């Protein structure tokens, strides 16, 4: 077994090591399905990561607005107490 197969690594354009031409068609189809599922799950992971980054960004933006509102409210209270 190739060392790259142990870590499920491959280079773009590599032919799958597990799909020699003499394998039965049913096994080859299952292995191709597995490869498509691996690729789809990797694509989903990337989209999930991107969504998590966007979510974190907007949480931080919301926190900035809340802090600014709290500061403005505090300043207004201070101004009223001085009057």
Task: Please provide a written account of the structure.
- This protein is mainly alpha-helical.
- It has one domain.
- Helices cover 75% and strands 0% of the residues.
- The chain is built from 2 helices and no strands.
- The N and C termini lie far apart (82 Å).
Radius of gyration: 27 Å
Strand content: under 5%
The major beta sheet can be summarized as: none
Mean pLDDT: 82
User: In which range does the helix fraction lie?
Assistant: over 70%
Number of helices: 2
H/E series: HH
The total domain count is 1
Residue stretches low in confidence (pLDDT < 50, at least 5 long) are: none
What gap, in angstroms, lies between the N and C termini? 82 Å
Number of strands: 0
Task: Write down the overall geometry.
Answer: rod-shaped
Q: Classify the secondary structure makeup into a structural class.
A: mainly alpha
In short:
75% of the residues lie in helices and 0% in strands. The protein has helices at 3-6, 25-82.
List the helices and strands and how they pair.
Blueprint: H1 3-6, H2 25-82
Give structural attributes.
83 residues; mainly alpha
